[in-house]
């Protein structure tokens, strides 16, 4: 049975059997995406006192310890704690695990041709996602209805699932105007298929993060107007057969008391059932 949800006056059925994860599968010690040159995510069998946690080596069961950097080793979700002193755990970030989500594809633009800005600077080799590119595909009024937005950059090749970002492979990022436009909306969750909404080498300012969470530039303090309910999910991969448009999002996050954790965003397609004929449903729910 598939539940019904109401969105902007239209009734939809969640197609639970067609759920699609947009997390990058993390294969430990093998090819995997990487940002800032950190060590690969690693998994190692526990050993000690005659026990080995590997059945291939004679152990009775498999028991592994893992080592990783959530911000740099794959799909992850972060809270405002990423840029402030106060504790705002990612494991406590969700008031609801389900929300509306718009998938939007956009082609980053060369900074050489860009009329928008970024702080501290734009350089000719930068590629940016502009406000004008976002507004061409989604109005501010429609964005305001969404609980989340997921950005897919074009071209969208499979190498994103194991790309090593660095000085020779710098990812795109948002212009100041683009992140201001997103920040002024009602969205709770921003999902992107690149490692950071800020420029990779930005002198450590994370200016876009500050705008998105409404934290004064250069500050590490929460204020009464800080948008602590918001999350950012980075390094997703949205396969080409997931078309642009409206979905329902299940953002799955472990209960880590940290600023970031590996995550698994899942998209559910929707079917317009304004005039549903027969069949059973679990009920009608409303999610922001």
From TrEMBL:
<dbReference type="GO" id="GO:0004061">
    <property type="term" value="F:arylformamidase activity"/>
</dbReference>
<dbReference type="InterPro" id="IPR037175">
    <property type="entry name" value="KFase_sf"/>
</dbReference>
<dbReference type="Pfam" id="PF04199">
    <property type="entry name" value="Cyclase"/>
</dbReference>
<dbReference type="InterPro" id="IPR007325">
    <property type="entry name" value="KFase/CYL"/>
</dbReference>
<dbReference type="GO" id="GO:0019441">
    <property type="term" value="P:L-tryptophan catabolic process to kynurenine"/>
</dbReference>
<protein>
    <recommendedName>
        <fullName>Cyclase family protein</fullName>
    </recommendedName>
</protein>
